[in-house]
Specification:
Number of helices: 4
Number of strands: 7
Structural class: alpha+beta
Distance between the termini: 24 Å
Shape: globular
Strand order of the largest sheet: 1-2-3-4-5-7-6
Helix content: 25-40%
Radius of gyration: 14 Å
Length: 148
């Protein structure tokens, strides 16, 4: 299931985004103030709509004079998992990186998030670093990079 449409997040989407954030990330979730800042920043913050609901979102971070785009966060509401939405969002990130002149995309992911690690590997991302005790609960992470 591809998203019915993908649009820039606005402040009116904040409650639904926070609900997804909490369901997906728990103790590592961004708070309202952080999400509000990210929505209002100049960085791409896209929401994926499906069945007339916000089904997921993706946050990308662009830094001036850096050739790497950071896939900062991607989250899919539990009701919409397993339907290809995350894959569609990663494809969108790759399109944005390519169109914006970035040569690489980087991300961090929990080592125990097997579905996400598998998806990123399918898209061509490679683990470049193991991050010890990267998450609040002590879980390790991977830094993964894709050459665009």
């Amino acid at each position: 299931m591809a998203p019915e449409n993908t649009v820039e997040a606005r402040l009116e989407h904040l409650p639904a985004i926070l609900q997804i954030e909490q369901a997906c990330f728990g103790v590592d979730a961004f708070n309202r103030r952080q999400m509000r800042y990210l929505i209002q920043s100049q960085n791409p913050f896209l929401i994926a709509m499906a069945e007339k609901r916000i089904a997921g979102y993706m946050i990308l971070l662009k830094r001036k004079k850096v050739s790497m785009l950071r896939l900062y966060a991607i989250a899919i509401h539990p009701d919409f998992r397993g339907k290809g939405l995350a894959s569609s969002l990663v494809d969108k990130a790759i399109q944005i990186a390519s169109a914006s002149g970035f040569s690489k995309i980087s991300l961090e992911v929990r080592t125990d998030n097997h579905a996400a690690v598998s998806l990123y590997r399918q898209k061509g991302f490679e683990v470049t670093k193991q991050l010890s005790q990267y998450y609040k609960d002590g879980m390790e992470g991977y830094r993964m990079v894709l050459n665009v």
